[in-house]
Amino acid sequence: MEDTEWEYEVFHASNLQQLTESIQENSIDVAIIDAHFPDGNSLSVLPEIKKLKPEIKILIFTGIDEATHSLKFINAGADGFLSKLNEEEEIIKAIVQILNEGEYISPLTQRLLMNSINNRNLINPLAGLTARELQVAKCMRTATEIWKLRIRLTLNKIR
User: Fold this and answer.
1) pLDDT tens-digit map of 107-126
2) What's the whole-model pTM score?
3) DSSP state string for 16-48
4) How far is 79 from 69, CA to CA, in rounded Å?
5) Is residue 71 classed as helix, strand or coil in its secondary structure?
C-alpha cells in the first residue's frame, strides 16, 4: 500500500473492543478487519459496527477459508471478503472496488452467493429442518449442556 498514491490513515486494533472504539471515534471510509481477534470473532461485532456507522464499508481480510466463511461475514454486514493468500494486485483491486463501488465480491464468493440463492441451507443449515426437528435439536443441546454440567460438578466433588 505504501507504493500507492492514496492518502490514508491507519488505525490499529488488537481486540474487538479497540475495533469498535476506533470505529466510533474516527472517520473511517473503509475498515479492513481480520475475522479473528484474541478476544473473539469479528463476525459478532459487524452488526454493531453497521448500526453505529451504516456508511462504513467493511472488508474482511483474513486467512480463514473463503469457501466456508465468506457468506457468514457478508450476511453479518461485511461488504467484502478477501483471503490473505491473494496476490497484491487482487488486494489492491479489492480495496479500489470497495472504495468506488461499495463492495468487493470475489469470483468464489459470487459463485457461493449464486448457489445460496438456489440452496438456502448453504447459509443456514438449520433452515432445512422442520419445526419438530428444531425442537429435538434444542432438546439435545440442552441435554448435552446438562450432562457436561453434571460431569463438571462430579469432577469438582472428587477433587
Assistant:
1) 999 998 888 887 766 556 67
2) 0.71
3) HHHHHHHHHHS--SEEEE-SEETTEEGGGTHHH
4) 14
5) helix
